[in-house]
Amino acid sequence: MPKFCFKGLLQADGWHENVTLLTDEEGIITDISASTATSAHQHYALPGFQNAHSHAFQYAMAGLAELHAPNQKKNDFWSWRKSMYTLALSMNPEQMESIAAMLYQEMLRHGYTHVAEFHYIHHDQNGKLYQNKAELSERIARAAEKAGINLTIIPIYYEQGGFGIPAQTDQKRFLSSSLDDYLDLYHKVLEISKKYPNCSAGLGIHSMRGVALENIIGLAEFRQHNIPFHIHIAEQLKEIEACKDYTGMRPVEWLLQNIELNENFHLVHATHLDHHEVAGLAKSRANIVLCPSTEGNLGDGLFPLDSFLVQKGNWSIGTDSHIGLNPFEELRLLDYGQRLTSHCRNTFGNNTSGDNGALAIEAQLRNGRRAMGNEMNDYFELGKPLNALVMSSEHPLISMTGKQNLTNTLVYASDPTMNKGTIVNGSWKIVDNKAENNSIQEEFLKTMKALSNRF
To answer: Is residue 427 part of a domain?
Structure first.
């Protein structure tokens, strides 16, 4: 049986010293036991991070939307979106697969072991169906398999350009013609997910502006069991005003009144809320997926996390446009945004232990797993796959830190050079910042040269 020995293993109740894990050939944990310290116990293992929101194709434009015309009065989300649409219209299936594989390998290098892909490009460059209706979803699944990351693919329902507004020409690759058309796509993606051992599927709507209101209700009623349901919501002030004009309500207000939300609903961004919406979401147990590096890059605004946590709200993290890929950085940005507005430093620890780092790890893991459609009782658990980010104990800062301060040191003071490697389903995928599959980078470079958008 494969054996993994760690100087420290992070569980929900804290660090366990000198732990050995055994797995079967499928990477399932068969034994977790304390053992006598030996030279084999060199490093610290945290549960692999959950990336609850990804648009893989956007990795190809990371860093490219920062050249602003001198006479441009305002460059905001809506001007950024034009550049994103140009990219979305340009790539073929092979190129999408190579971009996603490179991104997923980089996610692994930073410590993510599972990603929820919010996937809304379904058609060819002319807006026509592929022979395989779920061709591009399958390309995403292949990319995840190549990289070695766990995947929950969320085929996204998109049918209109705004509240009661027809879709635009540059949205033609995204569209489903009806709820039945989308459900047909979903079932095809579900069948594809069964072909890949580390892949599952969920349901998703691009946004309230992107789908007719009656179809949002219809899809929510279709959802069963613990299938995750993802939706962008309340990210932009313009969107909120348009929703108020069309429905007489704010987006989250409408959702709370028309959908029976629970912990299997994952609302991405939810940036602009009033206090009634904050309270309603917390009470519903719905999960807010926060993407601090992207939200900051786009100038979205700051989610009211402090008041949400006071009411025991659920949240997780994602990397969205992939302007940043370090999960610790996402947690820091999330925390520091709150500190700058509240002038208070105990963002995550207001009502419980006061251990900011441990509370942040616990929240993103528990709710991130739900965003994937997974449930686990502990961080590392018998009968479950071994997924871990392994941090080197040899770094001078880490080597001189006791277990009481270790989690906070990793969350607030680490960088990727401290990463020893990443284990997915009992197999090392990254060791010393190097991946096992070098062909992924070669294919990515070919794709970027062909797209020639980075020059």
So the answer is: yes
Please say if 269 is a catalytic residue. yes
Q: Please state, in angstroms and rounded to a whole number, the distance separating the CA atoms of residues 41 and 38.
A: 6
Instruction: Given the residues 306, 320, 335, 355, select the one marked as catalytic.
Output: 320
Q: Which pLDDT belongs to residue 438?
A: 86
Residue 69 CB-half CA count within 13 A:
8
Question: Within 13 Å of residue 288, how many CA atoms lie on the same side as its CB?
Answer: 31
**Residue 116 and residue 202 in contact, taking contact as beta carbons nearer than 8 Å:** yes
Is 434 inside any structural domain? yes
**pLDDT tens, position by position, 165-193:** 999 999 999 999 999 999 999 999 999 99
> How many domains, in total, are found in the chain?
1
Q: Has 119 been annotated as catalytic?
A: no
Measured at the alpha carbon of residue 428, what is the angle toward residues 427 and 431, in degrees to the nearest 5?
Answer: 175
Whether residue 15 is contained in a domain is answered as yes
Decide the pairing of beta strands 265-269 and 229-233. parallel
Q: Can you give the residue range of the structural domain that contains 427?
A: 3-47+382-439
β-pairing, 427-431 vs 419-424, is antiparallel
Read off the pLDDT of residues 194-222 as tens digits, 9 standing for 90 and up: 999 999 999 999 999 999 999 999 999 99
Domain assignment of residue 25, yes or no: yes
> If we measure between CA atoms, which residue out of 189, 193, 203, 191 comes closest to residue 144?
193
Instruction: Check pLDDT > 60 for residue 350.
Output: no
Per DSSP, what are the bridge partners of residue 165?
162
Which residue is catalytic, options 269, 306, 322, 335? 269
For residue 15, CA distances in Å to 45, 117, 234, 240, 242 come to 9, 31, 38, 44, 49
Q: What pTM was estimated for this model as a whole?
A: 0.97
